[in-house]
Amino acid sequence: xxxxxxxxxxxxxxxxxxxxxxxxxxxxxxxxxxxxxxxxxxxxxxxxxxxxxxxxxxxxxxxxxxxxxxxxxxxxxxxxxxxxxxxxxxxxxxxxxxxxxxxxxxxxxxxxxxxxxxxxxxxxxxxxxxxxxxxxxxxxxxxxxxxxxxxxxxxxxxxxxxxxxxxxxxxxxx
Length: 174
Known about the structure:
By secondary structure, the protein is an alpha+beta fold. The protein has helices spanning about 1-15, 95-105, 115; strands at about 30-35, 45-55, 60-65, 70-75, 80-85, 90-95, 125-130, 140, 145-150, 155-160, 165-174. The chain has one domain (about 20-174): outer membrane lipoprotein receptor (LolB), chain A (Clam). It is about 15% helix and about 40% strand. It is globular, with a radius of gyration of 18 Å.
């Protein structure tokens, strides 16, 4: 009986301290996201959507849709350009930063996002692990904090370091 209790205790402890699971680089990612952009003196802009992401920083495809499956936006990118298609039409950009700045009003590091959602820092910039006393595994990179909260489901929370209330991306991975 004591052996069973010890095994159960170890299993619970292992679950509480287990590192986040990384998603393979070639695997598509899907889930739900909530993006809040709050600029000083303006009303916050909020976006909630289902998403499907394929690819990496070099080339990929992101689709946003409503819970009922109606398309909100599609983005495609390659090393030479980025294209955003919405109900208002299609726009082309030189890179993902330009697309983010125009569509969101902020330069959100979309090139790093596929790596961040897969559970690891982007290889295109230095990163620092969060202190272990923070209680949540994660890191900082490109002026952003990336937290992984796996207590209830698989969550990724991304916020700006200099003003965490200005831009917050919350992602629930399927």
